[in-house]
Design a protein that fits this description.
Blueprint (H helix, E strand, L loop, with lengths): L9 H13 L14 E3 L15 E5 L5 E4 L4 H8 L20 H18 L8 H14 L10 E5 L5 H8 L3 E6 L2 H9 L4 E3 L12 E7 L8 H11 E12 L4 H6 L13 E2 L2 H10 L3 E8 L14 H16 L5 E7 L4
Parallel strand pairs: 4-5, 4-7, 5-6, 7-8
Antiparallel strand pairs: 1-2, 2-3, 3-9, 8-11, 10-11
Helix pairs in contact: 3-4, 3-5
Length: about 350
């Protein structure tokens, strides 16, 4: 199915690619607007269109990269609504979680992390659950230390699993998602999810204490407009939590074109610490902290990473990489100023 999903047929995609290659012209940087983007020479293969490669251009100023040729919005919508994208796989099952033992363990670990780190009040947890939460912190995420408030927006929420878990520990959380499939199934589960993008006028200004943009900013056409809208929707003092793949991570450098974090062509912009901080500060946020954290791109980049044994080994390798401060993703905490 995915072989014809993006452009309808092999011939149509081939024609689009060939036309672009003959008239190649890099787009301006989506982060800083600099027109000077140069071809890196890297041609990662799309996991969605077998055999097709896409080019990575790098900004000479902020060093972020962009994917060329860039798919149209209609092409991306076809894919996100296919039900085959990882964040909507559970949603397409209509709420029935047909997961293997390792996926069930992963879900339990994430639930422990949400309960321990995101709870609005101290949570009663067993010693084992506490240990699981601590171990899984980098993979599943955590909030800023001084987080306050109760209203949260989770952007790109998929089937709304995080929203469900956050609401269980005291949040009034709502989701925003572009996939109609994910939205429909989230609603079947009683999870409040609005269909749209952050730049749409879905919510009133200053209506959230926290906006979580997890594995989403790299997908959007205009990350600066997205962060400007987040700034508008946050109350003064509200927190922005962003996670993106780190294009300058050790794993990305070692694996090159084989790194799964490129995820072309659905990842449109490829950030590094410098460019992500620039995006936040240029849209009016006060920077708090930036962290490296591995979320598993290594397991999907190597041959044995999909097996149960391989995934377990990668978890421990990721912990070692994180201890060295070289994780495959970037987690940024920033705040809308009080004044």
């Amino acid at each position: 199915m995915l072989n014809t999903l993006f452009y309808g047929s092999d011939q149509l995609l081939s024609d689009k690619w060939n036309d672009w290659m003959m008239n190649s012209e890099s787009s301006p940087c989506a982060v800083c607007g600099n027109p000077g983007c140069v071809d890196t020479g890297m041609r990662p293969t799309s996991p969605y269109k077998q055999g097709y490669k896409f080019a990575l251009f790098q900004c000479v100023s902020c060093q972020s990269m962009n994917t060329q040729p860039s798919p149209s919005d209609a092409d991306l919508s076809k894919y996100y609504d296919s039900g085959e994208y990882y964040s909507t796989k559970e949603a397409t099952q209509g709420g029935v979680r047909k997961l293997g033992w390792l996926d069930r363990l992963r879900r339990y670990a994430r639930r422990c992390c949400v309960k321990y780190y995101w709870g609005t009040q101290p949570q009663t947890m067993s010693t084992l659950d506490h240990a699981i939460a601590t171990f899984g912190k980098n993979r599943f995420g955590w909030p800023p230390d001084s987080l306050t408030g109760s209203r949260m927006l989770d952007v790109g929420c998929g089937d709304g699993t995080f929203i469900q878990e956050a609401n269980e520990v005291g949040w009034d959380a709502i989701g925003l998602e572009t996939s109609s499939v994910a939205v429909a199934n989230a609603k079947k589960l009683g999870i409040q999810v609005v269909q749209g993008e952050l730049t749409d006028d879905c919510f009133e200004s200053q209506s959230f204490d926290v906006i979580r943009i997890w594995s989403v900013l790299e997908h959007v056409r205009d990350p600066i407009a997205t962060l400007n809208k987040a700034h508008n929707l946050l109350r003064p003092g509200g927190w922005l939590v962003v996670q993106v793949p780190n294009a300058k991570s050790t794993i990305a450098k070692l694996l090159g074109e084989r790194w799964s974090g490129w995820d072309v062509p659905v990842h449109l912009t490829h950030f590094n610490k410098k460019s992500l901080e620039l995006a936040a500060t240029s849209t009016g946020f006060d920077m708090a902290t930036v962290h490296n954290a591995s979320t598993g791109t290594l397991s999907s980049s190597i041959a044995y990473g999909g097996s149960s044994a391989g995934r377990i080994i990668v978890v421990f390798v990721d912990k070692l990489i994180d201890a060295m401060g070289q994780g495959d993703c970037i987690v940024l905490f920033a705040r809308r100023p009080l004044q």
